[in-house]
Amino acid sequence: MAQPKTRWDIFCTVVDNYGDIGVTWRLARQLAAEHALVVRLWVDDLRAFERICPELDIHLDAQWQQGVEVRHWPTEWPETDAADVVIAAFACQLPSAYMDAMAEREKPPLWMNLDYLSAEDWVVGCHGLPSVKYKSVQKIFFFPGFQAGTGGLLRESGLLDRRRRFQQDPESQRQFLQALGVVPAPGAQLISLFAYENAGLASWLDVLAADSTPTHLLVPEGRILGDVARWLGVESLAVGDFNVRQALTVQVLPFVRQDQYDQLLWCCDFNAVRGEDSFVRAQWAGRPMLWHIYQQDEDIHLDKLDAFLALYGKGLSTEAAEAMNGLWRAWSAGQPIGQHWLEARKYWPELQENAEAWCLEQALQADLATALVQFYRNWI
Fold first, then answer.
1. pTM to 2 decimals?
2. Which phi and psi angles does 328 have, rounded to 5°?
3. Residues 196-208: what's their mean pLDDT?
4. Which residues are CB-contacts of 310 (< 8 A; sequence separation ≥ 6)?
5. What b/e readout covers 39-73, taking b as 16+ CB neighbours within 10 angstroms?
6. pLDDT of residue 16
7. Domains (ranges, CATH) in the chain?
8. Which tens digits make up the pLDDT trace of 259-299?
9. Helix pair 19-35, 258-267: axis angle to 10 deg
10. Closest CA to 296 of 120, 43, 139
């Protein structure tokens, strides 16, 4: 007789527009598709979710999307059974009635806090440790990460093979970009820009505009558009807007679904990304990148940034590492980065090789979804 499928509940409160839901939506789909699990994804903000899953009906409390039961997380919690595995994404607080339902189960569920991604050394020591306890139910810390002893990174089966085939197929890239209305000039470098507001942007755009190499800058809808508009001297920017300043072409793209964003990253020579979800996807693209880390009180995010740079740049020469580190640190501090960009360009082949080598190194670890499933199997 077949064993019943394990039921998983993932809870997501949308704090930073798309990062939280981006991670949990990828995870939920992978658990259902690759591990044959019954997955419910509880989300408090369906409007933000709709941006990355346009098929979503924001007026429904319950619906199925891509093999996942999507539930609206309401103010008034409905009576519902607790799942076998409960994931509180990014330390979100579960409804008290659901916590009671967990405690009432004959066998308590595995309750995990899926924490934020970090390269800091202490993560390895804390991964898998017990956290708080509610009645008979023990919460466990589960940390994604870049090193052995962590939960790894989200990576769907076959992702790097799909990326490699796409990057080796100029016609597929041309068709993808053309569908977005992007037709780069011959010889232009393609750069994607997805970032928070940043006072350091203007100096970078100045340098790109004055460069001898043409640049086509692709800017998906997002918080950086206001800074781009100010540099261009226009009141605002909208999807489809197209502006040329000397060697720099700026084009505003629509907010696209996750698989299309992956392909956008794969097309570009350089990707500026933000937060957590796009940060990980840029690493799988195997191209030089720039991370705008989410700002935290007392600048503790800069410790997180330095910890990642120490790992990511360990294969670089001293000079290339210093150039890259200077660029990343200035960007996350909101400082002018034009000169840092010019310095980093001196080591472009080395930065390209490092990006691909890092990608392949990270792919040697178990992916996050597989690590979660294995953790549950060990737990039972």
1. 0.95
2. -65, -45
3. 97
4. 119
5. bbbbbbbbebbebbbeebeeeeeebebeebbbbbb
6. 63
7. 7-154+365-379 (3.40.50), 159-362 (3.40.50.2000)
8. 999 999 999 999 999 989 999 999 999 999 999 987 766 66
9. 100
10. 120
The 10s digit of each residue's pLDDT in 323-343 is 999 999 999 999 999 999 999
Give the percent of the chain with pLDDT over 90. Answer: 89
pLDDT of residue 5: 83
How high is the pLDDT of residue 292? 94
As a whole number, the mean pLDDT across the chain is 94
Is there a catalytic annotation at residue 84?
Answer: no
81-96 residue pLDDT tens = 999 999 999 989 999 9
| Active-site residue, from 276, 277, 350, 367 | 276
Amino acid at 177: L
CA distance 352 to 254: 27
- 306 is a catalytic site residue: no
Q: Which of these, 215, 218, 166, 225, lies nearest to 193 by C-alpha position? A: 218
- Distance between CA atoms of residues 373 and 32, nearest Å: 11
